[in-house]
Amino acid sequence: MAEPLLRIENLCKSFGAVIACRDLSLEVAEGEVHALIGPNGAGKTTLLNQIAGDLAPDSGRIYFNGQEITHLPLHRRAHLGLARSYQITSVFPNLSVAENLQLAIQAHQGHSFRFWRRGLSDPQLCAELELSLERVGLIKRADDLAGNLSHGEKKQLEVGMALACKPKLLLLDEPMAGMGPGGTVEMHKLILQLKRQMTVLLVEHDMDAIFALADRITVLIYGEVAASGTVDEIRNNPIVRQAYLGEEDEPC
After folding, report:
1. Is 89 left (phi over 0), alpha (psi -120 to 50) or beta?
2. What's the pTM value of the predicted model, to 2 decimals?
């Protein structure tokens, strides 16, 4: 059996008396869209923070692409091929959409930021920038300030900035949260495209989207893995249906 791209072993994280991760183990196979679901406070974002390097675990180990990264700083993980988006968008509001993406592209290429404004004279960077804009559906907003984008467009831009780093694993934290119907459709299309190109670990509350996009689903409840399996296995799991989907089994 192939080594998983991401392997988490016995991860624990507490905030005082609150246990966010309790002896949590998880594997994500290369090339799959793996969804994390669970009620609010289940530990989903805390887990992503530990994988990305924003937060140190109390104990346990994290392996990425065959290498232990448990104590690596965030920027080292990014160089290995980890990228993420956040629940609250983090773009540069006073820069244009194109400039935000340009910074992300140049960071991945290792260019000096002192000369980033000259970057658009580089034909390779221009071509990559245009592809990035088109990929996230923002080519018509390229010259607009990022701060003037709608919430959904900011989400699209942030995902575009993460993709500019050409990650092996993309961590998406509620990419459709707060979006209107149009933005949700566009993000759904984007994740479907990514499904054929990279590994995605997705946190999302929209269960219709989860069932349509995911290859495998892991359910977290109170910081523990309650169930993990294919879409059909999770959809038909009585524990999940009662604890998360709010359904009761039909009486015999």
Report:
1. beta
2. 0.86
- Report residue 195: phi and psi, to 5°: -55, -30
Find the angle CA(215)-CA(217)-CA(223) to the nearest 5 degrees.
155
Residue 248 in any domain: the answer is: no
Alpha-carbon distance of 50 to 62, in angstroms, equals: 9
The continuous run of DSSP H or E covering 80 comes out as helix 74-80
Distance of CA 26 to the CA centre of its chain: 16
Q: What is the tally of structural domains in the chain?
A: 2
Q: What is the CA radius of gyration of the chain?
A: 19
| 156 assigned to some structural domain | no
In a domain, 77, yes or no: yes
Q: What is the pLDDT of residues 10-23, one digit of tens each?
A: 999 999 999 999 99
Alpha helices in 83-237 (DSSP H): 97-109, 123-135, 151-163, 181-194, 207-213, 231-235
- Give the span between the Cα atoms of 81 and 168, in whole angstroms: 5
pLDDT by residue (tens digit) across 6-63? 999 999 999 999 999 999 999 999 999 999 998 888 999 999 999 999 999 999 999 9
The candidate with the shortest Cα–Cα distance to 210, out of 195, 223, 225, 197, is: 195
Could you tell me the residue range of the domain that residue 235 belongs to?
6-91+167-243
Distance CA 81, CA 157 (A): 19
